[in-house]
Amino acid sequence: MEFITTNFAPIMFAGLICFLLLGFPVAFSLGACGLSFGIIGIELGVFPASVLAWLPQRLIGIMANDTLLAVPFFTLMGLILERSGMAEDLLDTVGQVFGPMRGGLALAVVFVGALLAATTGVVAASVISMGLISLPIMLRYGYDRKFTSGVIAASGTLAQIIPPSLVLIIMADQLGRSVGDMYKGAFVPAFMLVGCYVLYIAALAIFKPASVPALPPEARIYREPNGSGGYPSLLALAVISFLVSMLLARHMPEVHSWWLNKEVTSVATDEKVVVAMCGGAMVALLIALLNKFIGLGLLSRLAERVTFVLIPPLLLIFLVLGTIFLGVATPTEGGAMGAMGAIVMAWMRGRLGLALLKQALASTTKLGSFVMFILIGATVFGLVFQAADGPIWVEHLLASLPGGQIGFLIFVNLLVFFLAFFLDYFELSFIVVPLLAPVANKLGIDLIWFGVLLAMTMQTSFMHPPFGFALFFLRSVAPDKPYVDRVTKKVMDPVTTMQIYKGAIPFLFIQLFMVGVMIAFPNLVTGSLDKVQSYDLKAVGEQMRQGLQPESGGEGYGADGGYGADEKPAEPEGGASAPAVPAPEAAPAAADDDPMKAMQDALKQQKP
User: H/E/C letters for each residue in 70-131?
Assistant: First the structure.
């Protein structure tokens, strides 16, 4: 019995693994393990019986957590946009824009994957949507099967890291950090990853052009009456939008000063990017609307199509992320605006039916219930594990790793990478992250950077054969038998599971490269965050002491001139007793002031 009580925490953790290996759902395994070991621990005297009395209060705290409301809001937003045909329209339009280039369809998949990630936030929805829509088209025009499978799966996993990612919301809640800061921290690494995908496609187009052919002329449907593609007007519109964005970014402090009615000298990079791109997109949309309704004839069919298909979801993304980054709305309020905006967009496109709304609400309810049950189970387990000093055991286990911060980060990323073969990212966030966060904080690791790094690692595990969830999602929609293409009427070969696995490996290495880059350059994450204001407390104290001393230069209540608790003032040489208090003219300048006010004034004079 002594061995069990001494090693109760590791035995409890091993018990959780046994529960999971038995095949029970994770939420119920967590709850059952927590309650079972809670009863055993009380019987053995490991902790008092009052531990379980804290459980109702913890569960009420979960239901009162406003941050978690962002999960169903963003899920509903993404499902409505995806099921209203937005993904199909985007892939069709962007594919027509980049189609004449080698690798153009692959570029379209990457860009649309990034857009879907910023709207759906769910990996399964992105992979399945692009697999159903773009996979047959890319196979039809001769794209390599392995590369096609890999680029679709990898682009779908961007929903893991591009804001408003659901995993970043959960990560922020578990790490005790702001969701807005987590989004800001993920902004630069996410788009660097998109850039790496683009560079890989460009390299293939140069060195292996046969694997990424251009779209044939007969497949380009948005042509002008004279036979041209309509690219000059699209390019001109893009240049105008870009110039407006650059102008806004350059003068962003002045815009903020005007908006806030106070002087602003600097603006965070993420705020500049979102607001500037929003302004440029608005200008492009206004030009397209004027051209359509007034009949100016300035834009080609392709330019109009791109503007009306691409700009509305972009504006919705900017609305959601921009209000969060600017501090106008909380992530929960931003998600609510996004869901409402998606409903309005689907209604304006004539695609918002009762059946679509019921499907979206049902799927959102299922996902929300899934998250809530896992969180309840993790809370039960975590309460008992903490009572058994489990965090101290984990801290001693991980803090003794060689290599300090780097050794800890390498071990943790390998651990999360392998655990993600078997556990969903929600489950990892609720089970593993609360155990790792205190150790990371004690080692001096920024928790925002730590959370974004773990999210990138979880994304990597989506692509690892043979366990990657994204590969399973693609396998479920890829043709596994020969089929007849509906356009060319040719018999097409199926996509094998091995082709999907081989196609995922290059993108897996790209993602691992980004994990290494983030570890080597933490400023990629922390550089986007608002600077923390720091004060020199020693200087503040000195200034307060000076403020409490008499103006006349005589001794007052300073550190050197004050009286001790049992000291009496010295008598003058003439034997007359000195006054008990200073004369009015020698009174301290701040004697009538509130001490708190004096401290506030001193703090205001300190520069951050």
Answer: HHHHHHHHHHHHHHCCHHHHHHHHHHHHHCCCCCHHHHHHHHHHHHHHHHCCCHHHHHHHHH
Q: Both tokens of residue 429? A: 């966030």
Peptide bond into 164 cis (omega under 30): yes
Non-local (6+) Cβ contacts of 411 within 8 A are 398, 401
- Flag whether pLDDT at 198 surpasses 90: yes
Question: Which of helix, strand or coil describes residue 263?
Answer: coil
Tokens of 37: 């070991």
Average pLDDT of the segment spanning 547-561: 51
Q: Name the more confident of 544 and 448.
A: 448
* pLDDT value at 227 more than 90: no
Whether 112 contacts 91, CB under 8 Å = yes
DSSP-derived letter for residue 484 is E
Tens digits of per-residue pLDDT, 39-82? 888 888 888 888 888 888 888 887 877 777 888 888 888 788 77
The fraction of the chain above a pLDDT of 90, given in percent, is 6
* Cβ-proximal residues to 458 (8 Å cutoff; 6+ apart), any chain: 160, 167, 416, 420, 425, 428
User: DSSP per residue over 284-307, as a string?
Assistant: HHHHHHHHHHHT---S-HHHHHHH
Q: Region 166-178: what's the mean pLDDT?
A: 85
- Give the containing element (helix H, strand E) for 386: helix 354-387
Task: Characterise 578 by phi-psi region: left (phi > 0), alpha (psi -120 to 50), beta (else).
Answer: beta
